Amino acid sequence: MATHREVLQWLENELFDGHLVLGQRLPTDKDMAAIFRVSRNSMREALKILEAQGIVRLFEGPHRAILPILVREPAASAGPALQLHMATSEHPLRDIVQTRVLLETAALHASEQRWIPRDELRGIMTEMDREDLGLKRFHDLYVSFHIALVKSCGNAVSTALFTALRDSIYEYTMALVGHVPLWSTTSSRIRAEHRAIVGALDAGDRTLAARLVREHIEYQYEEAGVDPDQARATAADPHALGDAAASPEPAAEDDEFSAAPRASA
Asked: Average pLDDT in the 180-190 region?
């Protein structure tokens, strides 16, 4: 077995047994080389592969040692790979919307009161109500809210999969902003719908919560006049979305309120 696969298997076992936690510092490259009985160069190469996979971060320590640290959010490393896949998909917007609906509605149907992150959801909603909130921050919070919703099912794999979609969701929701009639009206609607979804969860009505989140997701592109089935309509390319919708640009309320996507994932 390749050294990096041995290290990965070891990390999985240690995390499962509770001997390691995400974000924890690991032994130095020299110490790990001794543990796995390989050369220090082989261990350094293995750690570089794991860093490229988004599993560890490497820092330079004393005496030219390499200090590996487990990442806190390993699911985030899958985001760039998913965005590359979306870039080659014939219907990238349709695919991401359908995946959102599947994951979020399934999570809410399976939600349990003890798993609902109420403090996190309410904290996000409170932040989204700020009058001085810029467009980029609004959409960062928007995605965080929906990740928190998926946490309600208590399934770590579902949450990790949805977290990996974070940048793709951010890009397409940002791109839609330029096609809604009036952003202030849209943002008010989004906040109201978020409150309704959380209200349904608090009431224990999982079916209503799932229906509300489906309607919430689907209405976003309907309001913008964007057809998600149109070939090549993509979140990463608002010009492609522009071909699908001729709705007027919203009036800019400040410099933050622009529909430009982030420069990097």
From this structure: 94
**Pick from 50, 196, 187, 133: nearest CA to 58:** 50
Question: What is the helix (H) or strand (E) element at residue 16, kind and residue range?
Answer: helix 3-16
Pairing of strands 66-70, 56-60: antiparallel
> What is the DSSP secondary-structure string of 174-197?
HHHHTTSS-HHHHHHHHHHHHHHH
Q: Is residue 86 within 8 Å of residue 92, measured between CB atoms?
A: yes
Spatial distance between the Cα atoms of 152 and 178, rounded to a whole number of angstroms: 32
pTM here is 0.69
Q: How far is CA 254 from CA 104, 197, 259, in A?
A: 32, 29, 12
Contacts of 4 (CB under 8 A, 6+ apart): 45, 46, 47, 49, 50
What does the pLDDT look like over 140-177, one tens digit per residue?
999 999 999 999 999 988 988 898 888 889 988 998 99
